[in-house]
Amino acid sequence: MENAQQQINDFLSRRFKWTIENFSELNAKKLYSNIFSAGGYRWRVGIFPKGNDVGHLPVYLEVADSAALPTGWSKYAKFSVAVISQLNNKFNVTKEARYEFNVTKTYSGFKRFIPLGELYDPERGYIVNDTCIVEADVAVPRVLDWTDGSKTEARLCTTIQIACDEDLLDQIGKDLHFDLVDYDKVRSFIVPKGMRFDLFKAKVATEFGIPVGRQRFWRWGKRLNHTSRPNYLLLTKTGFQSFSQDEGKRVFEPLLANNAYLQFFLEVERGQDIQEHSFSYYSPGNGILLFFKLYDPFKEELRYAGRLIVECSCTPMKILEKLNAMAGYPDDEEIELYEEIRFEPYVMCEHLDEKMTFHDCQLRDGDIICFQKLLPFEDAEKCRYPNLPLFLDYVNNRQFVRFRSLEKPEEDEFCLELSKNLNHDDVAERVASHLGLKDPSKIRFTSCQPIKYRGVVHLTDMLVHCKQNSDILYYEVAETPFRELQGLETSEVVLHHDAKEEGNSLSAAHVKIVEEIFQKHGNVLQQVQVLDPTFKAFFLERLASIVELFRSYTATSITAEVLGKLKHLIQSLACLGVKVDWMESYYQKVVSSNKYVQRQLHIEHLKEQVSTAEIALQGLKDQLVEAEKEITVVHMETGNETVDATTILNPL
User: Where in 420-499 does DSSP place strands (E)?
Assistant: First the structure.
């Protein structure tokens, strides 16, 4: 076995070679390699020599001593595993992954790493002289230990992760589109809980090459909408970070004492003409730290543009020239602004009114504003995603799917970039287009078992293989459309008590919904019976669509636009003279619930603002106490004489 560790940028990487002899004689269900170290953690590779229930060799990476690690541990790692051909390197099979290992997820890997038939194929050379070779590359973020090498207990240390502009520039638009940074990919430091702030900044200066006087730290915080933003500046009473030793104890050291993990954004002022401590003045409640992303609809690219501290009373109109400068646009370029709010459970990116103040737009420290050129109609038509909300929705729902023919199930024939929200017919159309087929209904998809024609709602449902999510779909092409083979070309819903009444054609999914409605609301069946057959089909299809649309959302995720669409659909039912009071009543409940949830979020936002204001108020009170102490000392120095501020000074 061989291993070697090296430092690559800010990752510690180790390659481990595992030579497995007498491979055909192995009887164990699982087999583990020797333990090796990478990035301060102990790892091992595991395989199932006899394969698994799907005829493949599983290979995975595991944290070897997870039971001995501290409570709440976690470690991000980039890793790859490979089965090596001893005859020709072109046959090497390598797969890569990134994973956040933690106390409940101690291993990760590949259940279908290589088919057993290929593994034992003598022409590929994976097993020669009954020996198999497996290699693993493990890279973990580098963590500097600033405890002077002493064996300090974990409870007496704090792990600090520091992100700066370079990290945002490196990640946004590549591995990351939402939020600002993935902290698992930035530099980490272990510090003793008693470390002084001035010593900490000196260490940072050495590591980052940034003078102490050009450093300003913002603490990162989680928000109620599951995003993370830098929202608390470590300030002195004068609004800057040139802490005295006493002030360091008051501000920095309590953070170390009360937290096992801390995340900071390091704000740095750069430039040859910039003096130390020349940061933009910031006062809680009066200033806002904003981050900016730039979207290019022609290239379909999003990148980090920069940051600004703006006054709460300022409007976006006043910073347009600065934003154009960030983007490299002319000063008078017309641009559109959007606020990135959240991306779970759905993307929320709203247009920003350039004439409203930042305060009235309810922006706060750490918020993200995205901007792009204002496109003329003719240019917008040339773009797949002409504005940022459309692009972010695309990114959030993007899914790369590998398609394999059932005739060659072990080979990837092609890969398509699709949306998770596509339905069965949409996916079939894309595959048919790729294969050059005129009739998409002749394609049937298979995961663990054949997927019925229109038997699932979205692509995400199609990609569930034996209760596991996958990115592979198998397909076959028949001479006859599968909807006919399955007898699902139309589904009859009988709307009568008399067997001679006419039925209406509905999709299979809507048939089930209509049957539920009839069971719970028998009066609907009676009313539909008297409708003209043409209206019956329209009414039932529309009714099922409304129920399906409701079920696609929660009280928190439903938007005003969707509520408006539902209202229009419900009103269209009333035009046919069918009473659906229960539907209208439910709609009103949803509207009320949505308002209630939005009010709750607004209240939480106000609470955060109140909390911020209280912190600022306490800071002012502390300044007042200090000022009163100082004036007492000065009064004593004057011999306790009363000095009138208007008295003309005269030394004679």
Answer: 443-446, 464-465, 468-469, 472-477, 491-494
